[in-house]
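Input.
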Amino acid sequence: MLVTVSLLLIIASLATVHTGRVKSLEHKILLNSQNQALAGAAAEGGLAHGISRMRAEPNWQGQVHTVMLNGNSRAVVHADFEQVQRNGVNVSWAEIQSMGFSSDELGSQSVREQVLRFPLLNIVPKAPLISSVPLSSAVTFLLGANPNGGGNGVPVSLWADEDIAPLGLNSRTCALQSFDENRCARDVYSNRSNAGDDVLQNHEQFPVDVLDYFFHIREFDWRLLKSEASIIEQDCGAATLGANRVIWIEGECALEVNQRIGSESTPVILILVDSALLMPSDSHIFGVVIQLSTTFPSVPKRIAMAVNSQLTGSLILLSPINESVSQFAIRYNKSVLDKLQQDADMQRLSRVSGSWRDF
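Output.
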């Protein structure tokens, strides 16, 4: 009897010890799984932080830094940058790496992803006036040509997809110096009686999709361009636009006397959607103006610039204008347009599809 009781006690003790060991092992597995999940979350948080830092600090060179997260978990983040050429412009290709750690440092996880930083403006316009729609003699314009638009020393004033009618009676193109000195009436490249080589009409190299050419966004995907705007408004009031540089206007863009939109140091991309542009005396826009229609059929809108008002940069016409009441003066300025491609706040980020790794 005593032997039987002793055996039962031994068996019960062994079962208790075994159950304890199993429970302890299960606890360790649960703790390890929890630590691994926390480390993975920390790594993803660090990766998101690295991408945000790349967006907010264009001069960040990828130096190693630690990010403290909720629950005392942390991530160690760094990036390897590489400069690549895209349309003659250096763009940054980075692989951001993040090592996440659980709060007790027992769990760790590494993730990495590639990110491309590129300019919103893919190609700098090469002419003061670019048009994918027909232009008749009814429209009046004065253009200061890009002196090197067709190559070194080859001026370009107008780049068009369609054949251009003879220029209007008071329309002319000229060199920048003649434009600045108000001598376009005498020292002309092109006028009503003579269309010079600076007018590229029905040009074989004109892009099939102008928005895609300049922004890598197809015209029927115009909503993607709208999503890139820093402000969306119904008018062009100075108090409304502020210091924003990618401006989307869905109403009449009527400037005030002496109003400036942009500057030589901070030019803008002004997108007029089914909108008229009215510029009174001494008003000025610096940058690129794009006239775009999202309706069919589109309703022609006027572009009316008073005497002494001017666009410094380029006008891109993607929808018909009301030519009989339109007149404008455009002076090409490459340094102004280059800033739209080179400035830090005109850069965009894109995650490279399929580049995420957790090993």
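The mean pLDDT is 91.
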